[in-house]
Amino acid sequence: MNTTAPTTPAVSIREVTKRFGDVTAVDAVSLDIADGEFFAMLGPSGCGKTTTLRMIAGLEFPTEGSLQIFGDEVGTLPPNKRPVNTVFQNYALFPHMNVLDNVSFGLRMSGVEKKNAAMRAMDLIDLVQLTGMEKRKPNQLSGGQQQRVALARALVNKPKVLLLDEPLGALDLKLRQEMQTELKTLQRELGVSFVFVTHDQEEALTMSDRIAVMHDGELLQVGSAEELYERPVNRFVADFIGQTNLLPATVAENDMIVLDNGSKLLCPNPHAVGSKVSMSLRPESIRIGTRDAIPAPDQGTSLQGVVSDMSYLGHALLYTVKVDGLSLEVRSEPVSADRRFGPGDDVAVWWDRTADWVVPD
Amino acid sequence: MTLTEIPETAPELPVQVATPELEATNERNDRRRGFLMALPAFSFLTVFFALPLVLVVVYSFATRNRFGGTDLSGWNTDSYQELGSDLVRQVLTRSLVLAVITTVICLLLAYPFAYYMATRKIGIRNLMLVFVMIPFWTNFLVRNYAWYVILGTDGPLSQVTETVGIGPTRLLFTQAAVVLGLVYGFLPFMILPLYASIERIDGRLLEASRDLYATGAQSFRHVLLPLSLPGVVAGSILVFIPSLGAYVTPEILGGAKTTLLGSYIVTQFLTARNFPFGAALSTVLMVIMLSATIVYFRKGGRTL
Ligand SMILES: Nc1ncnc2c1ncn2[C@@H]1O[C@H](COP(=O)(O)OP(=O)(O)O)[C@@H](O)[C@H]1O
Ligand SMILES: [Mg+2]
């Protein structure tokens, strides 16, 4: 390894494409992952997350493109020659070895003498709170414990980048949330880049410094949780990250857009007049009230409709409001029962000037 | 595998409140049903396998009479004492060595093949399985005679080597020919269990080992081999045991100077008409096989 300037990314992917026969699993993806960053790769199943991760690990070679780890080209380097380790989906623990042998495997393979390897492995076993279980076989451990072994087995090698493929996917909700916090803490303490693959947007949002959203092998957007949530680059990202109302519209002149039902709304955006777009409105950024309660009726940031459904969520009320054939989800404070609207009530919905966001179709 | 049977209640019987007695009755019924299902195979094995076996052991303690018959009286261990003779020891050693060589060659040939097969797509895999089993479509004896012809003095093999200038081959009636015939005959019995056990291994374990800095060879040594050990054990037993007692192949390809245990035993029964001695040899052979099996299962069988 050469000495690396602080600006050298931990992982640098340039125009990387991976094809399996006529399936393009990863399509010309470029991205940089900084040293010490918690980086998530997010997207629905089959979008190419695992394939991208496997190319970083060396378990798959790119069809085209350049892949660098700390500035060194690794395109076709075998996995055992790369300074990265992987926590596999469903862990892939060695079933014939006990916890200690699983964890010390990497050290043993890279030539560390047995006693020394066992000592370092024990440190990691302590770190993931499995002390006392080192003689057990993987099938004598719970899912959560197996997960920790997988983590220790990878981290014991002090990788420069840790790759995690849906590491929490097999755990139940409660354990999952605990592990999210633990992983995040661990990553901060170690200061190692984590590349974390998940299809769960909430998980990605809560844990990551930056998130890459993928779809059909393409990288759609890379950014912080906030950027993705508030300024999605297209319909897919807007829809995939959090919940939103996507209203199909056409761009008109003077910063206006025309919804498909004919309503004109003020909505400054950079898209060409006449182009088809969608306006994204988050349910929680929409206000609901009687029609005479609209604070600024002539600003083009309100619509009139009829409540078609209301559900009580405890911490909020969720209304479905019909507006001339469109349907809007609106989330509001859990006001007392006599101040709620019910199905059939005429209402108005409005939003802040800054709440809307237009994405191309 | 444990099957949990859903208890059946005849429709006309009232459904009853569960009690330990009822549960016990139920379990008893289950056991009886299981026993009844195993009964046909069980009786068959008793009549045609266990009884002859007992008979062999009994005969080994009997006495040969002057007319080539066997007297089932005057029980003694004379036959077993005869086993210590130089000739017997020679035949036994030769048979063991050939069986071990055959097993090792089969293992070395079969492992890479089984691995290759197990890592192909399902269609190709099945095709290869068919190829492995094609030899079974022809009678074993016929196939051995085919080798007899191929290896013969003016056979195709000899002609080929002569044409390319290595000179004629004189393989027939050598131990090499016997090993060749045995390897050929028993290779599928090595391939199939190896394939079955390799095929079951999760490929990601090998990837994980590569990810953890193992070279290809280390992955094999520390992950693939230990995990496929059940197949290695099963295949080795399936090749070693019939090789040790092989009769047809050594008889056809081996010639007189390389008598193996199988032929030797047959001679005792049919030519020398020394039934007790033949029976004693058979018993010893079975004990060797049994102990080999037990040792093998002890060593590698725990993962089976
Ligand atoms: N070894 C492979 N052979 C053929 N197609 C593959 C292979 N691995 C992945 N794919 C295909 O590539 C696409 C992306 O897969 P993957 O990276 O596993 O997606 P994700 O992890 O996002 O669910 C899928 O369409 C999948 O079927
Ligand atoms: Mg995946």
Q: What is the strand arrangement across the widest sheet of chain B?
A: 1-2
**Name of the CATH homologous superfamily of chain B:** MetI-like
- Helical content of chain A (DSSP H or I, runs of 4+): 10-25%
Q: What spatial form of chain B do the alpha-carbon principal axes imply?
A: flat
Query: Nearest-angstrom radius of gyration of chain B?
Result: 26 Å
Instruction: Tell me which ligands are bound.
Output: adenosine-5'-diphosphate, magnesium ion
Percent in helix of chain B: over 70%
- What is the largest interface, and how many residues per chain? A-B, 23 and 18 residues
Distance between the termini of chain A: 45 Å
How big is the Rg of chain A? Answer: 25 Å
Strand order of the largest sheet of chain A: 6-7-8-3-9-10
- Please report which band the strand proportion of chain B falls in: under 5%, 5-15%, 15-25%, 25-35%, 35-45% or over 45%: under 5%
Could you give the topology of this structure?
The complex is a heterodimer of chains A (361) and B (304).
Chain A: E1 11-20, E2 23-33, E3 38-42, H1 49-57, E4 64-69, E5 72-73, E6 84-87, H2 99-109, H3 114-127, H4 143-155, E7 161-165, H5 173-190, E8 193-198, H6 201-207, E9 210-215, E10 218-223, H7 225-230, H8 235-240, E11 245-251, E12 256-259, E13 264-266, E14 276-281, E15 286-289, E16 302-312, E17 317-323, E18 326-332, E19 346-351, E20 357-360
Chain B: H1 20-60, E1 63-64, E2 70-71, H2 78-82, H3 86-118, H4 122-133, H5 140-151, H6 156-163, H7 175-200, H8 203-211, H9 216-244, H10 248-254, H11 261-270, H12 275-300
Antiparallel strand pairs in B: 1-2
Helix pairs in contact in B: 1-12, 3-7, 3-9, 5-10, 7-9, 7-10, 8-9, 9-12, 11-12
Bound molecules: adenosine-5'-diphosphate (ADP) and magnesium ion (MG).
Adenosine-5'-diphosphate is lined by residues 20, 23, 25, 43, 45-51 of chain A.
